[in-house]
Amino acid sequence: MPNAEELLRFLPEMILTLAAIFLMLWESRYDEHDERPGMPAAALIGLGLAAVASILAGAAPGSAFRNMLIVDSFATFFRLLVLAVGALAVLSASPFLRQRRAEGGEFYALLLLSLVGQSLMAASNELIMVFIGIEISSIASYVLAGYLRDDKRANESALKYFLLGSFATGFLLYGVSWIYGLTGTTNLNEIAAILGNADIAPNAMFSAVAAALMLAGLCFKVSAFPFQSWAPDVYQGAPTPVSAFLSAAPKAAAFATLLRVFFTAFEPVSDRWLPLLAAVALATMVIGNLAALWQTDVKRLLGYSSIANAGYVLVAVAAHSTLGISAVLFYLAVYAVMNFGAFAVVALLEGSELSDFHGLAKRQPVTAGLMAVFLASLIGLPLTAGFFGKFYIFKSAIDAELYWLAGLGLLTSAVAAFYYLRIIVVMYTKPVPEGRGEMAAPAASVQAALVFSAAVTIGLGVFPGWLLDWATRSSGLLR
Amino acid sequence: MLLAIALAMPFLGFLICLLAPRANPKTARAVALAAAGVALAASLGIAPEVMASPATLTQALSLNWIPYPPIHFSIGADGLSLWLVVATALLSLIAILVSGERPAQFFAWLLLLETAILGVFTAQDLFLFFVFFELTLVPCLFLMGQFGQDSGRASSTGATVKFFVYTFAGSVLMLAAITYLFLKSGTFDYQNILAQAQAGSFRLSPAEQLPLFLAFFLAFAVKTPLFPFHGWQADAYATAPSPLAIVMAGMMGKLGAYGLLRFCLPLFPSAARECAGWINGLALVAILYGGLVAIVQPNIKRLLAFSSLSHLGFIVLGIFSFHLNGLDGGAYQMVCHAITTGALFALTGFLEQRKGSAEIADFGGLATKTPWLATVFLVAVLASSGLPSLNNFVGEYLILQGAAFAGIGYAATAAIGVVLSAVYLLWMYQRTFLGARPEADTADLSGREMLAVAPLVLLMVWMGVASGSLLPPQSAVNQKILQQSKMNVEFRVAAPLPEAASGD
Q1: What pLDDT is attached to residue B304?
Q2: Is B163 domain-assigned?
Q3: Separation in Å, CA of B495 to nearest CA in chain A
Q4: Which residues does B215 contact at the CB level (< 8 Å), separation at least 6?
Q5: What DSSP element (H or E) covers B71?
Q6: Do B165 and A429 touch (CB under 8 A)?
Q7: Does B169 contact A382 at a Cβ distance shorter than 8 Å?
Q8: What are the helix and strand counts (H, E) for chain B?
Q9: What is the pLDDT of residue B445?
Q10: Nearest-CA distance from B7 to chain A in Å?
Q11: B130, B161, B180: residue with CB nearest A425
Q12: Which of B131, B160, B180 comes nearest A383 by C-beta?
């Protein structure tokens, strides 16, 4: 029987699950196209309680359930990050869905369940738990991607996401079974102990294959080369607030898993997978940025941009240092906010083509200004969070003497400036298209989400110190 | 403290104008004028202190910004930055003065641009320098995008994107180089790095210097611009609203030249000397190519853009002559060129307001209708083409002198550029202001316009006849730079490498 401390460490997941079940039950009181006035607030309360529980659990770090879960500041960082993204998603999704008369309790419930999975991924210390976490998160995400069930695009998106996602999970599971066969355990620390002990370590070749299989599965989740092709299709087809959520939260959780599995369990064979990771990072940056250049659909463009950004994060992972890990944490938090903001602005428009952005500065100056902030941050201009995010990433690469990776990465990020810039330019220079007058101001909850994201983007661009401090404290424990 | 005020005031004005987008344009302009005016007064206020000890850093202010890696908001001025700071403050004030009625946003971005440029000239922390260097792009982006006008084939949208991508791509590698310097020296503080280099505790091998130098050089060469990185320039200057063009052509080009002089020479002396040969070659190409292309330009703004390309070639040639005269000339010419080009773009802006275009073919015989405008324009044209007793002559003479020490061929070729500048500028003047008396009436300079250009004309004369009062502080710093760039080279020559330092 687990003791009270262990239960506290599992409390965030329990709260989220209970809130999700409560929302499902409440759903039965409404008709299909009704608005559900209290539900976003209820979901937010659930998220808030889970965040409080995460902080409480993080205050007393330790393991739970026979070392299957480990709650340390690393896990707490990611739990709070995905919960924050979830809250932003609720705020921007509810007006979006109401406008399409498709608000439903199951949307919020699925969102919360997906967060349960991600929060488990961040805290799992065991390959089976990793797998369970990924599956909980993914299955909820597949449904979310197809949530607008009368929309063909959304259906295609969900189907693609599901098929390719299950394929990739297969890789991951196969890797898990290899490593279990080789070491007889699924606990990350025990795997590391066995791989690191020259007397009992299995053939390094076999461990490397297991690592490669797991890397393939995780590469899919973070949309890294060569498993990136789903990202633009899925983000383009899914309802926009869902795309925003998918590009931030599950990705962050997948990176948490990647860091934990590879920097703990596979640390002893790091010389085998590090070169592979560096090559993957480079290819991901190049492909993401070059493909984004030609896009005219902004959602699709942001999809490719999310591939490129995954590449930047992988650079910091490949740096294989404490500084690199803290750069990963910092960048994921920054990316979540700025990318969410950009998607949330797209969700406000009639369509997501570049031409829908023409003259936005005249139709809705404040929204255009906020979008410009998010895009400037994605470009990496100084005094925005994205600048420091990139700086820390490439600094960690230079620290690790990966000069070629840092140099080429910086150059591709300069190429990226072009496609983000195009959006800013059409917002400010093109005339308002015929037949489109003033735009109504966005709903209050969206405004709150946007202003919050922009404030964080600029705030971290001026004073990045505190978040980096936190990220550094969280990363120190991992190795 | 005064220097901090000079930086803080425009930024404060920027915030006020940005956060009150619907403010009355008159009020916004008054706020902007006040902010830029105080900044100019403050920047003049630091002059006595800097001139008293030009080679050391005065008005230094260092605040902790980011704990790790240790980045400081650290600014200070010495003899090299002093006149550039004053010129920036002056040109920004003039740009605001000639802006006319514009939305509050316009003034906000101009003030941010002023802040960023002042920051570049005074930053003493390499990271902070990079931040300001990149920050200059943001106001330009909005000013060109929102307020630019298409000019002939060049659309303002295309010019904006081209300008931004060129300069942004040029400078990203500099960040990597700065990071590398930090890892080697443990600090971003420029003075600290130099002190370590002097003490011998911080050394870069020639193999390290070359890539680092090239990363810095690329950023500065695009910004200056130096041939062949000038692709963005003509379109940008031609489509930019004229107040922006004043600051852009006047000051932004100097960011690159300043960076070369301030950072590249002392930090990477052996690489700089090794590369001096081909860099001087590029500078000569820029001088001649810019001059030749300027001759055939049908548009005054495009002509001035290519003229800038040619003149900035001179500055680079002076810097990479590795002779005190060349360095002095380069530093002096940075200020001179800022004043004359600023005046020329301001005057072109007045012409454009009157005729709605800057095509030379649309003008002719204006001198009879607008004697004052014609006179002031003539003074600026003569100054720009290097007439003795006006400012550019001093700078160009010193540069040629320095170049002659580096190699007489450099000086001889560059001198052709002086002739070319007289050709294109005077021919343009002739087609614009002389010739048959036009029928339509054109207004002469208004009081406000006169007020805007008068200080520039006075400065052209003052800097031309009394260079002795302005040059010494710059020269003191240049001596130090030259000494630093020699000091490290001895170590470089001692290293067993086949090729000895060239261009010495």
Answers
A1: 92
A2: yes
A3: 24
A4: B173, B174, B176, B177
A5: strand B71-77
A6: no
A7: no
A8: 23, 2
A9: 84
A10: 16
A11: B161
A12: B131
Within-domain flag for B453 = yes
Tokens for B199, please give them: 């003490």
Q: What is the 3-state secondary structure (H, E, C) of chain A?
A: CCCHHHHHHHHHHHHHHHHHHHHHHHHCCCCCCCCCCCHHHHHHHHHHHHHHHHHHHHHCCEEECCCCEEECHHHHHHHHHHHHHHHHHHHHHHHHHHHCCCCCHHHHHHHHHHHHHHHHHHHECEHHHHHHHHHHHHHHHHHHHCCCCCCHHHHHHHHHHHHHHHHHHHHHHHHHHHHHHHHCCCEHHHHHHHHHCCCCCCCHHHHHHHHHHHHHHHHHHHCCCCCCCHHHHHHHHCCHHHHHHHHHHHHHHHHHHHHHHHHHHCHHHHHHHHHHHHHHHHHHHHHHHHHHCCCCEHHHHHHHHHHHHHHHHHHHHHHCCHHHHHHHHHHHHHHHHHHHHHHHHHHHCCCCEHHHHCCHHHHCHHHHHHHHHHHHHHHCCCCCHHHHHHHHHHHHHHHCCCHHHHHHHHHHHHHHHHHHHHHHHHHHHCCCCCCCCCCCCCCHHHHHHHHHHHHHHHHHHHCCHHHHHHHHHHHHCCC
Query: Which of A365, A379, A465 has its CB closest to that of B67?
Result: A465
- Distance, in Å, from the CA atom of A462 to the CA atom of A470, rounded to the nearest integer, reads 16
- Is the CB of A469 less than 8 angstroms away from the CB of B172? no
A366 touching chain B per CB within 8 A: no
Tell whether A464 lies on the interface with B, counting CB pairs under 8 A: yes
Residue B104 exposure: Cα atoms within 13 Å on the Cβ side: 15
Q: pTM, whole model, 2 decimals?
A: 0.90
- For residue B493, the model assigns a pLDDT of 41
Residue B15 domain-assigned (yes or no): yes
* Structural domain harbouring B166: 2-494
Contact present, A313 and A288 (Cβ < 8 Å): no
> What type of residue sits at position B280?
N
Sequence-ordered list of residues with C-beta below 8 angstroms from that of A236, at least 6 positions apart, any chain: A153, A157, A243, A297, A299, A300, A303, A352
**Closest chain B C-alpha to A122 CA, distance in angstroms:** 26
Chain A residues within an 8 Å CB radius of B157 = 425-426, 429-430
Q: Which of B66, B168, B180 sits opposite A465 (nearest CB)?
A: B66
pLDDT, residue A476, reads: 67
Cβ distance A399 to B183 less than 8 Å, yes or no, reads yes
Question: Does any CB of chain B come closer than 8 Å to the CB of residue A414?
Answer: yes
CB contacts, 8 Å: A387 with chain B: 131, 134
Which residues are B189's β-sheet partners? Answer: B125
pLDDT digits (tens, 9 = 90+) for A202-236: 888 888 899 999 999 999 999 998 888 899 999 99
The interface pTM score, or ipTM, of the predicted complex is 0.87
Q: Choose the closest CB to A425 out of B21, B135, B160.
A: B160
Residues of A in contact with B168 (CB under 8 A): 379, 414, 417
Q: How far apart are CA A11 and CA B8, in angstroms?
A: 49
B164 chain-A contacts, CB cut-off 8 A: 417, 421
Q: Does A59 touch chain B (CB under 8 A)?
A: no
Q: List, run by run, the mean pLDDT of 10-residue segments along chain B (504 residues).
A: 90 89 82 93 91 86 85 90 93 90 88 94 93 92 84 78 88 90 89 87 86 93 88 86 90 91 90 90 94 92 92 93 91 93 92 84 83 91 90 91 90 91 91 81 84 92 88 89 71 43 42
Does residue A441 register a pLDDT over 90? no
